[in-house]
Amino acid sequence: MKKIVLKAACAMCAALMAFSIAGCASDEEESLTPPGGGQQTEQPDDTTPQTPSDPGLVPDDEEQVTTPPDDEDKPGNTGGTTDPKPDEGGTTEPDEGETTDPEPDEGGTTNPDEGETTDPEPSQPGGGSQGTDEPEDPVTIPATGEIEFIEAQGHLESAYVTWKAVEGAEWYNVYYMPVGGETWTKIDAPLVRQYPEYFRADIPGLAAGEYLIKVVPTDKDGNELDEKSGTTGNLTVLAHEREGYAFVNGTASGAYNEDGTLKAGARVIYITENTKDSVTLTVEGANENPCVGLQNILKGYAKGKDSTPLCVRIIGNITDLAVMDKGDILVENKNNGKGGITIEGIGSDATANGWGLRIKNSSNVEVRNIGFMNCDSNEGDNLGLQQGNDHVWVHNCDFFYGDAGSDSDQAKGDGALDTKTSSYITHSYNHFWDSGKCNLQGMKSEETSNYITYHHNWYDHSDSRHPRIRTCTVHIYNNYFDGNSKYGVGVTMGASAFVENNYFRSTADMKPMLSSNQGTDADGEGTFSGEDGGIIKSFGNIFDGPCSLITTDANSSNKNDFDCYEAASRDEKISSDYKTLAGGTTYNNFDTAADFYEYQADTAEEAKEKVEKYAGRVGGG
Questions:
Q1: Rounded mean pLDDT of 99-126?
Q2: Fewest CB atoms within 10 Å of the CB: 42, 149, 217, 392?
């Protein structure tokens, strides 16, 4: 037995990855209803962004701003959607947006201190990976006419721009075009929003590449004031990393293609605080059409008969809806993944405030760019994959802890992102803010064939369950464990977990990896579980602070009383001689099997930088 106490900063420990699992055995096979997450650090701005779909939302008193033209002057202003078709009650085909002749390439950005125009150096997408470039600082972009841009940025399969109001302008049309292209594409009206001090437009659904954005003011009659328009310099858009089990034997890109663009014929509905209960859509197989309100639209898709891709776009702070399912918005499609469903937030402030998402019996579902806060612990988790799911991808979300519950382990709410009896799942680039219980992975009825990937998540001063695994087969790589108070990864009931190239900013009390009833847990130093243990293979992890970890390796006589097996190489297989002390199960060596998926693991240091740059919502939420 090797007990290693690490106190050196930034020491590369190629096999020291252990988590201590505390107080996790309470979640049994109860039907959890995931509500929206809880945020303890900052509440959303009381001023909901104003869009053409929400003409009545005007900030109070001195913060009042110019409202967009009246509803009848706005094409597509129906229930919060753009250009609705007669029977689709608030859907839009964004790929068929209006086009105009391009203006000359404005190119470059201006350094306000030097007055020089320079071409920004793009960060290279590099085969679907964001790279490890440092975050770009907000920049002031040159513009023609009278528009003063505040910030313009390319992001992950999206871009955004903010600008100051133009005198005499009633509203704005916004267009985008690939650099070198010939046609401008107009974005959907709800993507343009008004804040007290500025306007903002977000453009989702962009393939990786270089783009320009043009903003054109309009007068009270909707006429474009071309002489006052402005065009940004080149903006670099990068690809999301579509990796992990969610992309094995299928896809979890939802309503999007693998290049980040919307699928042909995809329906898009926009959910604002004003339209959440009135948006309409005709859904094949629904009990009643048109379906009214978000949950009723999703109930229509739950019949599993409509294979049209559905993209739900959340704008601003959304409180409880009139129709929900046990306090949640329920997503279900009877595992009909032909079309796919995406639930996504727009911009940096899309928030599920007081409610959460529950996904069950679904295939090809994507959830991204949403902040979950103020969840009612009596209703369940912030986001829960309840049962019967395959090919689900949850990424780039912010999870804040919720309202305190009645149980002793619910001081910070219930689970943030739990997954049960589901397979081919990827959770990536999520930011967990001081959560009490981050990721419960599995019920007591799980199978080893339930395959899950966690990569590039930021466990930011959260307590435990990063994840806490029963039985399942789980790959955990390139995550940032940032000052966690209890434990990191924990395994029970014969689980196999490969913990690879993660960065641990450890605390004195943290136990990076735990297996129930053996190693640190058996020494009485952990507070984990009475269940039988599982086996963790550790490789390439960094610990930059003190932590206690009991390891074994191929040369050790300790075959069953350890926190993790310390591999000498990524491809090392663990002998069946190594078994759990309680239960006698072995490691299944899934990570060295011939059919294991392709992925690109960053070093632990690179992973930390990428996580700090990209985890959570656009711009860090």
A1: 34
A2: 42
